[in-house]
Design brief:
Layout lengths: L3 H6 L7 H6 L7 E6 L7 H16 L4 E6 L7 H10 L4 E5 H4 L18 H8 L2 H11 L3 E3 L4 E5 L1 E4 L14 E4 L3 H9 L3 E4 L5 H6 L5 E4 L1 H6 L8 E3 L5 E9 H5 L3 H35 L3 E3 L3 H10 L2 H9 L1 H11 L4
């Protein structure tokens, strides 16, 4: 967190970038914390560390960002509270979990809304993402322009394959702490259980939950295949991470440093997107080799089940006509 003393010390530190670069290397004047909930080996963590390294070099050591992966600073909800208080400076968080503070932030996770990545990035780098960033800004946070990819989510199970909506009836599935996830799986007849990701493996191992849903890369990295048998390729939801900053802490950086931090974090977001795209081509084969049985599903049947249950109509009311109109302008009619 940036202290008032440091702000005062650097009240005149809005130096031209060349001035920062030509000074001798020095101890960091801004020691910042960046938290995420991904394993240290996940592309998100790797690319965030690269951004931190580039930021330190470009500011000649004035800005040093320490990356804390894998919920090291607490659960998602705990870390979001720390971000809001200023104890944490940056945090990458799923919009679906951020929705506990910023309700429109979960709109990218509406079930079966996005058919492919072209549709995702057109919307989230465009009007829909711009709308959500404005809403985030109203809550004392800043969202960087480029979202980080967490991927399309697939359902895994330890008990039976999930191929059609009826297979989810009474199914105990772990979901993140988010109303949209809970609502969607309830509409499909399942019994969702909200658990933070750091506890997912043990919840599956002890049968608290029969299954879970996550992108293939995370299923691989977190070794969930060790405690699951089937993987149903539902692609039921696209999930991404907003790079969030505490507004006051970020404003305490000199303008040149703000520009460098913004540029490098957005650059790493694009690098991470490319990483996930490459991994998607090989992860399925690796998971199959580890014994996970892949199941093809009837996606139109799931979408129709949500429509029949009133899921889309309910969430249209919750998001409001403006947000829902922007979503449907990008993905087509849902409700």
């Amino acid at each position: 967190m940036i202290s008032l003393d440091r702000r005062s010390l650097l009240a005149g530190a809005a130096l031209p970038l060349f001035a920062i670069r030509t000074r001798p290397a020095r101890a960091a004047e801004f020691n910042l914390k960046l938290a995420n909930n991904s394993p240290a080996t996940h592309p998100q963590s790797v690319r965030q560390q690269e951004a931190a390294d580039r930021i330190k070099a470009a500011t000649n050591g004035a800005v040093e960002i320490q990356v804390f992966p894998n919920n090291q600073l607490g659960s998602d909800t705990d870390t979001l509270s720390q971000l809001r208080s200023g104890a944490v400076d940056f945090f990458t968080l799923s919009g679906l979990i951020l929705a506990t503070l910023v309700p429109p932030a979960s709109i990218n996770g509406v079930g079966f809304a996005f058919k492919d990545y072209d549709t995702v990035w057109k919307a989230m780098d465009g009007r829909l993402g711009g709308y959500v960033r404005q809403e985030i800004n109203k809550r004392g946070l800043i969202a960087m322009e480029k979202m980080w990819d967490n991927g399309f989510r697939q359902i895994t199970s330890s008990t039976h394959p999930i191929a059609q909506p009826a297979d989810l009836k009474g199914f105990k599935i772990r979901v993140p702490v988010s109303p949209l996830w809970t609502s969607m799986f309830q509409a499909l007849g399942a019994s969702p259980i909200s658990i933070n990701f750091s506890e997912v493996y043990s919840a599956l191992q002890t049968k608290i939950a029969e299954g879970q849903e996550n992108p293939l890369t995370l299923i691989q990295i977190a070794k969930l295949y060790e405690v699951q048998k089937y993987c149903s390729m539902t692609s039921h939801m696209w999930d991404g991470f907003w790079m969030l900053a505490n507004k006051n802490n970020f404003a305490g950086l000199p303008p040149d440093a703000q520009a460098i931090v913004t540029k490098e974090l957005n650059r790493s977001a694009l690098d991470e997107r490319a990483d996930i795209a490459r991994l998607n081509g090989s992860v399925a084969d690796d998971l199959k080799s580890k014994g996970l049985v892949f199941v093809e599903v009837d996606k139109p049947a799931f979408r129709q089940a949500l429509k029949s249950a009133g899921f889309y109509a309910d969430w249209k009311k919750k998001y409001g006509d403006e947000a829902w109109g922007i979503l449907e302008s990008e993905v087509g009619t849902l409700s």
